[in-house]
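Write out the bound-state structure for S-adenosylmethionine.
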Amino acid sequence: MKKSTYESIYSTEALSSLEDHYGSGSGLYKMWASPHSIITAILFGWEKSDHPAQLHHAWDIKKFKSLNEAIKQSVREALKLLELPNNVDNPNILEAGCGIGGCTTQLAKENPHITVTGISLIQKQIEIANKLKRTRQTNSARFLVGNYLRMPIASDTYNGIFAIETFCHIPPHEKPSLFEEMFRVLKPECKLVIFDGYPIREPQGSEKILFEKFKRGWTLPEMITPFTLTTYAQKAGFKVISVKDITPRVIDSTPYVYRNASILRQIIKAIRFLDDRKVKLPYVDNLFKSLGFSTKNAEIFIEACQAGKPLVESGLGKYYMHVLEKPNPSQRYKNKTYETFYPKLKRIDC
Ligand SMILES: C[S@@+](CC[C@H](N)C(=O)[O-])C[C@H]1O[C@@H](n2cnc3c(N)ncnc32)[C@H](O)[C@@H]1O
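---
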């Protein structure tokens, strides 16, 4: 099996596989919602449905009355952790890797005083995001097509940045420049909140094949542990506020993802069966297209959805939260004594 999907986020290989996964394949994510939203999104499109349009794990599923609400909870959790300053009337927030705009539009709708910018590498996602913005009437949401490793944004712009299940797409050797760019566009004393999945050790035995299937289907390059990620962030200058294993908050998503992948697999089987017998049913082609099955990645995507559950159960896969702060340069050393920095030098008071 081919090992990782791409070696650089700037490569044409990365762009074409991410385009296939998130562009033409976006339809597959229609399955990630409460049943009525799945049906309306398939029949009428994203923008005419109340689908959360978010491509990440759901939080505390058992606490909420619907899967939609549990999915939408993660943006609310991220916003709380950003601890936006009270003295700013119109904070400016960035969602790095905004998918089809579900999180950005939700945050803007629930907090109209906040300007939220979403950026994604994939043009087709931003087209969907702009349609959502119009139908959901979220004027304070903005969208950009671009690479968040090099943004056309002035330094010290944002009062907060959140990144949900997106930094996993950046190969290890490009993580240092990712954090340098986040650091650059964030205002001092403001925070970067990251929610993401990680392997916490090397895969062993049968985990190895499952892990390769997982990376291939989710279009992921080589992955690092949450601890290595923390080191990269610190090297870029971030102060670590919190690094926490929050697997228990999202773990109940994996059986749902597994079940939905099994349903998709059965749909593909049934369509193949009919196709082989040259049976053409009305609307089946449309359904096929609307769900993104026409993409070459559909089947490996389904395999990846099914690989996630055993990897979490064996303890290899964990979900972490990082809260990082860009220190104010003038306060960076405020709480540290001279002796902590120069333990071997004698202090001279002049
Ligand atoms: C799993 S989706 C998550 C989307 C969104 N955060 C959500 O939770 O709904 C990952 C997103 O990251 C984007 N992405 C990955 N690498 C990127 C990069 N270097 N620059 C901009 N966007 C990127 C992908 O295009 C995709 O939209």
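---
The two ends are 67 Å apart (CA to CA).
Strands lie at 92-96, 115-120, 141-145, 158-164, 186-199, 239-245, 317-325.
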